[in-house]
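EI: anyone free to look at a 228-residue chain?
SC: sure, send it
EI:
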Amino acid sequence: MPKLVFSRHGLSEWNKLNQFTGWADVDLAPEGVEEAKEGGRKIKEAGIEFDVAYTSVLTRAIKTCNYILEYSDQLWVPQTKSWRLNERHYGKLQGLNKQETAEKYGDDQVHIWRRSYDVLPPLMEATDEGSAANDRRYADLDPRDVPGGENLKVTLERALPFWQDEIAPALLDGKTVLVAAHGNSLRALAKHIEQISDEDIMDLEIPTGQPLVYELNDDLSVAKKYYL
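SC: here you go
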């Protein structure tokens, strides 16, 4: 039975400050480091042995992946990093305080930007300071693939090819897989795996640093789902 473990990165510095983060490359907060280490310890206690690990190209997810593997005594496990597992891009909201943004635009509007499946945030231009277009880790991408802002629908469309090309084949080959990524990229993949509706996905929240285990059938449908 294929086994898949999702881990949202530990609490980041901007999570702690209640700021929209998206593709901004912020580090883990000290609490987030401890969450990631504890996730690794829980995985070791559960006896889960990975064959391969996937993460994004953002520091907070990469460090979470490393801590999980280190504290489960599996730091040798091969890792693949992909921008397709990055957090949802929050456009011009990135770096803004969520409460201050709600006071400016209203709670309802901010709730729509944060939780709606298909409503885009205010978009960032390629010339804006902080645009991913100016980040060399994305230099080899087609400029059309570098977002100025995403909703969950676009995040899923961006992540799905990586699922189909990398993660699903590994699972179909019987491998046990770790995906250490972000709240929204994991929610997007969970929507696909669990066949969650556009409406119900709004209620799914994946907590930081807590390993989510999927035991899958041979067709990769979900047989069992639980947190460690």
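EI: The CA atoms of residues 10 and 208 lie 5 Å apart.
SC: 👍
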